[in-house]
Amino acid sequence: MRGYPAWAAADFAAFQNMMLTIFYPMSHQFWESIYNHYVKRRGLAAPYVAMQVAQLHPETDGGNGDQLGFGTLTFSRDSIVTGNSPSGVTAYLRGAQVLLSWWGVAGATSYNVKRATTASGPFTTIATGISDVLTWTDAGVAPETTYHYAVTAVSGNRESAASDTARVSTAPELLFHLAFDEGRGNTTADATGAWPASTLANGATWTAGQSGSAVVFDGVDNYVALPPGTTAALADFTIAAHVRIDSAGKWAQVFDFGSGERRWMMLTVKDASALPAYAIDTCHGYVTQRTEGSTALPLAQWVRIAVALSGSLCTLYVNGAPVGVNEAMTLAPYHLGTTTSSYLGRSQYVADAFLQGAIDDYRLYAGALTPSQVAGPMSVQGRSGVDHDLGSRK
Ligand SMILES: [Ca+2]
Q1: Of 134, 143, 314, 317, which sits with the fewest C-beta atoms within 10 Å of its C-beta?
Q2: Are both 116 and 181 inside the same structural domain?
């Protein structure tokens, strides 16, 4: 509210009255239905909903006889699911640690974490007695190693079967690679074979590349649309590309992966200070974290730009040399999930310039390449605030 001076006192009073008279009484009506659905029907743990239900129990009528709650009716039933395994296990590499998280099981009192170096095991129990919250950090991982994690639920004396596994490699792995060597047509293939083709949009076409051919962008409306989800499951990552800037428009992008203006990660060739910068934001420009270069990028020549995140340490590289560091980059690509718009050469913001220049050899790695790997042939296999009203970065 404080950020919207256009709200008059009378508007705020009306809003407050609406919350107190409509939404707050109604809030007594729906927590029991959520609780019974997830805990008793789906068998999932919902500890915070359970706390909310306990606060509001028993449910009361919130609307003069026509808003009776569910908790007093047959919706409040015995559990139909028992003995589930934990589900939704995720594992993210962040620096020298792996962050684990999972959905709990209704009735479970604690959880055990198991780890193996092959998907089929054998699994070794590496942590027991985990209760609240349902996360655990594995600080005992070795470099250049692949791990598979599973979680079990303990209910009394009974341990559930293991969850599905989540895989993490502490060695960087090439996940997605556009070599742009087709030289014709309006699609370009991922060289790893794992992803669908990307699309050259609005007339983006071909030119001589740093190696083979490359895509050239007119600075008006050309861009390349990538398949969704390439960065969705990543914490530590590296993105590298050869870029030739023919004319540096403000906020022109090498890449911008986002779901509109609210949630994005991007690498611009020219930020508000006319410097290259990587930035990520999950809340409409209010929580931007940024790693900025130290000098403007040269025009009309190929430069190798790379950004690497290791834990909360983000490094921006130009031609293999570090040009900017931020040690407090806590936001990672997985915080954005699968973004709706994954662009090369185009911003999420309509007012930002399109890239005028060319891109070749775009690479995405899981894990942070080391400085020597960034400076080498990369042969590994495997912002300031945003003006949300005007739709542009500033
Ligand atoms: Ca090429």
Answers
A1: 143
A2: no
